[in-house]
Amino acid sequence: MYEVKIHCNMGDKGAITSENASKLSKNALKRLRRDEHWEKIKPMKRRAYRERRKVRKQALQEKEKASEEGNRETTGEVMSEEQRALLRSQRKSLREAKLIEFLDKANSNFEIIIDCQWDHLHTEKATKSLAQQILQCYGSNKRSSNPVKMVLTGVSDDLLSKLKKTNVESWNATYVESGDYIGVSKKQLVYLSSDADEVLDELDSNCAYIIGGIVDRNRHKGATHKKAVSQNVRTMKLPIKEYISLSHTHVLTVNHVFDLLLERCKLKSWPAALDKVIPRRKKAFTDHSEDDACECKQVKEGEETEENE
């Protein structure tokens, strides 16, 4: 007999022996071994991250040095400390100007609310997945030419602790609320649900679109729609079935719904937005119209998608 040294939350035991391991399912053991592997490689990943930061810092210093040498070749003078300080100040002003432009665009656009008040339906793994999807939403918003104000509502302590690991407090145009979405926005609330009767054809800058933060919606069909109706919140569905037919499920992840809204705002076309966001292996376009079909080009292979309620 041997000991399986896999660290997990097992009270005071800390590690699992072969006796305990025999009581666990095969999938549970796989998860525990994966966690142990992560603990082993975490220091290496941190060192790699620090090394990347060091390389970026050196590249910036070399760029500044090249700029200084270029100035010296042009003027015959070496850049003084005051000139270096002025250059840094100019770069800082440029970053601040870009931030102001980003916030102005976000505040003038529609809002996206992610309703995270579904902890009672989530496992620990599902909560981690939701946190990762929210992080991807922020990344998309940060890169977008048409950013939006992103509001996270119903955020539990558990989810917040995971988001803090990604420095959620420093995210631009992002707000975290522990309470429900009622009253957090001055705009008209619209809950996106596949069970709604009304189709979302045009995006309205006077609206705040709510995405249900449920990770496994196939097991909780209709939950978000039922909640919205009970609160007298308007419900609408994305025009997905009007343009494409998904091969497996008509449920999208939170970040894919978020990306669809951003792309629809940018491209002014649902077919083009769907074409860009949804992987080709998941869809087959319908004969909606000749014009729409022309807009639907081949998409790049992406990660597996599920459609939001």
Written overview of the protein:
- With 309 residues, the protein is of the alpha/beta class.
- The radius of gyration is 24 Å and the shape is globular.
- Helix 4 crosses helix 5 (157-164), helix 4 (124-143) packs parallel to helix 8 (254-267) and helix 8 (254-267) crosses helix 9.
- The chain has three domains: 1-71; 80-109; 110-295, Alpha/beta knot.
- The strands form two sheets. It has a six-stranded parallel beta sheet, with helices on both faces.
- The protein is built from ten helices and eight strands.
- The protein has helices at residues 18-21, 26-75, 81-108, 124-143, 157-164, 223-230, 240-243, 254-267, 270-277, 290-295; strands spanning 111-115, 149-153, 174-176, 188-192, 207-212, 234-236, 244-246, 283-285.
- Helix content is 49%, strand content 11%.
Summarize the helices and strands and which ones pair or pack.
Layout: H1 18-21, H2 26-75, H3 81-108, E1 111-115, H4 124-143, E2 149-153, H5 157-164, E3 174-176, E4 188-192, E5 207-212, H6 223-230, E6 234-236, H7 240-243, E7 244-246, H8 254-267, H9 270-277, E8 283-285, H10 290-295
Parallel strand pairs: 1-2, 1-5, 2-3, 4-5, 4-6
Antiparallel strand pairs: 7-8
Helix pairs in contact: 4-5, 4-8, 8-9
